[in-house]
């Protein structure tokens, strides 16, 4: 039943907002993955003192370059539960690559702000975020990949227009 609901979720709402499905909530000490049955499985436990700085999820019914749904870092002021579908707007992209089967492959993360957020209501692009915001998230991903002993590198950043181009490509590929 749960999978059916998610499978029917549109990538965008009627007013153009982007639906983001939250797998791992901000503040979690565990990385969750949703399995084929719609259940959440704990994939990784983070080291003592480390937690996810923002919620992580994906845009339903999309297929990114890596074959998975389009990955999203979701910015909210507080936590939201795993399994929440949050109307958002894309503000940028963190360009990354990591080892996939012995070869480095792109694994970009689109950055979105929840439309419900009052604190981030004036944020329109990645460059509108506080100084050091993107660097902090990149540092988290470096640490995370080091923990699982996977080669990783940051290769750049992009603004809102590039994030929406990635969304359009992922919508077309699904």
UniProtKB/TrEMBL annotation:
Instruction: Give the enzyme's main class according to its UniProt record, as a single word.
Output: hydrolase
Sorted alphabetically, which Gene3D superfamilies does this protein's record hold?
Inorganic pyrophosphatase
Keywords, in A-Z order: Hydrolase, Magnesium, Metal-binding
Q: Which GO terms describe its cellular component?
A: cytoplasm
Which Enzyme Commission number(s) are listed?
Answer: 3.6.1.1
Q: Which GO terms describe its molecular function?
A: inorganic diphosphate phosphatase activity; magnesium ion binding
The cofactors it requires, by name, are:
Mg(2+)
- The domain of life for this entry's organism is Bacteria
Origin organism lineage: Bacteria, Pseudomonadati, Pseudomonadota, Alphaproteobacteria, Rhodobacterales
Q: List the protein's name.
A: inorganic diphosphatase
BP-aspect Gene Ontology terms: phosphate-containing compound metabolic process
């Amino acid at each position: 039943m749960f999978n059916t609901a998610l499978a029917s979720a549109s990538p965008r709402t009627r007013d153009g907002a982007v639906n983001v499905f939250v797998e791992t909530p901000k503040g979690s000490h565990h990385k969750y993955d949703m399995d084929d049955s719609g259940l959440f499985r704990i994939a990784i436990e983070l080291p003592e003192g480390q937690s996810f700085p923002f919620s992580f999820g994906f845009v339903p019914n999309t297929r990114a370059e890596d074959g998975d749904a389009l990955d999203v870092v979701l910015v909210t002021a507080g936590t939201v539960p795993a399994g929440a579908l949050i109307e958002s707007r894309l503000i940028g992209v963190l360009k990354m690559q990591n080892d996939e089967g012995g070869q480095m492959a792109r694994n970009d993360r689109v950055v979105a702000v929840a439309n419900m957020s009052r604190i981030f209501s004036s944020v329109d692009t990645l460059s509108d975020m506080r100084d050091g915001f993107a660097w902090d998230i990149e540092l988290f991903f470096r640490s995370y990949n080091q923990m699982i002993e996977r080669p990783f590198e940051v290769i750049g950043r992009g603004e809102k227009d590039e994030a929406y181009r990635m969304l359009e490509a992922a919508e077309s590929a699904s």
